[in-house]
Amino acid sequence: MSLLSHKSCPSFPSDVPTAQLKKLSYRNLLSDHTRESEALFDSCKTYGFFLLDLQETEEGEEVLKDVAEMFQMGKALFDLPIDTKSKYALKNGTAFGHKQREELYFITGDANDILTSSYKGLGVSKVDDKGNPDRCEFWGISKDSIMGVSTSFSAPDVLMSHRLLLQSFVKHSHAICTRILSHLESHLHLPPGKLSSLHRLHHPSADQARLLKMPPQPEGDRRTSLLAHTDFGSVTLLWNILGGLQIQRPGSIDPEAGWEFAQPEPGCAIVNIGDALVKLTNGAIRSNLHRVTYAPGDQAVCDRYALAYFTRPEDDVKMERLCSGGGTWMGDDEEETTFTVKEWVAYRTKLYRRDGAQMQSWGGSASARAM
Fold first, then answer.
1. Cystine design at 246: which of 30, 110, 161, 259 (Cβ 3.0–4.6 Å)?
2. pTM of the model
3. 264 vs 20, 90, 170, 271, CA distance in Å?
4. 285 pLDDT exceeds 80?
């Protein structure tokens, strides 16, 4: 059963561990409401996640309209024959293999390989040490290709015929992320535009829209669909109809403990902070570990669709610390401050894929790693 709107969705269960995310108003953020801005900063420091109510603003209503249409387009995209989708699959040896840590590649997305639109099929990678395959397929679509920053745009007809929709979705999503960055600048005592100027819409970056689908799992074998990870970028916007996203509660020590469902709400995006922004702010804000599992309760029998927009600093931005910070970070590797964003992502990916570094939460006033 496929559900593409909250109206036809089974109720989110009340008997599962649920993350207590703050719900912020985009209308108040647009009005520079002091208390709302402080709540945003507090959420970014302590949890790295919050709900953003996009209703009652022109920009927010526009992106919600885009999201509804993107879900419909995504269903048509995933319904394409497998041989058609396989034409756009990321290549063996560069994008994926059959090792557990290759899943990371799909999550982070490298600008060298996701140039236009790229497809990851079900079960391509592993989600645990037992060799269990993932239960997620998705399409990554480059912001640069959508907006014409790159002249290359190779994609199925379903995407090509919806290019105006893709442009509208990217433009509005990017503007929302920029507004979030502007509030963080104020609280971090950075000059106005210091962060947002590193994330310009029409400059080369690895920003992307991503459409995801997770089929219902067998009742006797329900488990993780997409492994625990942090996002490599700056700000992520996520829209879900069904539950399934889990966030590890800050302060959790056991890697299998502290997992709580994020409950989707109509009219809202789930927002989270990524590693690049933690790096640039010297650990002042938090990038929190999260994963995707089966939808809870009665929702478990339905196809689960999701839509995300990932922002990342422009490719040639230097990964220099912009403020004093004060939270935890990924060690004291000064070499990283000389990297461009593109080089830094490649370096971090190598640490996880080849050198076996452990994915964990970083930064923020919680000062707690998920070990």
1. 259
2. 0.90
3. 12, 30, 21, 11
4. yes
Q: In a 3-state reduction of DSSP, which class is residue 116? A: coil
Q: Among 134-143, 237-246, 273-282, 362-371, where is mean pLDDT lowest?
A: 362-371
Q: Are 29 and 179 in contact (CB under 8 A)?
A: yes
Confidence of residue 129 (pLDDT cuts 50, 70, 90): confident
DSSP string over 162-204: THHHHHHHHHHHHHHHHHHHHHHHHHTTPPTTTTGGGS-TTS-
Q: Between residues 81 and 112, which one has the greater pLDDT?
A: 81
Nearest CA to 89 out of 121, 46, 43 is that of 121
Handedness of CA 40, 249, 294, 110 (dihedral sign): positive
Tokens representing 106 are 């799909």
Please write the tens of the pLDDT for every residue from 182-234.
Answer: 999 999 999 999 999 999 999 999 999 999 999 998 888 888 888 888 999 99
> What is the sign of the dihedral through the CA atoms of 272, 18, 284 and 228?
negative
Cα separations in angstroms, 306 against 15, 31, 76, 295, 371? 23, 29, 14, 12, 28
3-class DSSP state for residue 304? strand
Point out which residues pair with 52 in neighbouring strands: 24, 269
Contacts of 304 (CB under 8 A, 6+ apart): 213, 214, 215, 216, 240, 241, 242, 244, 295
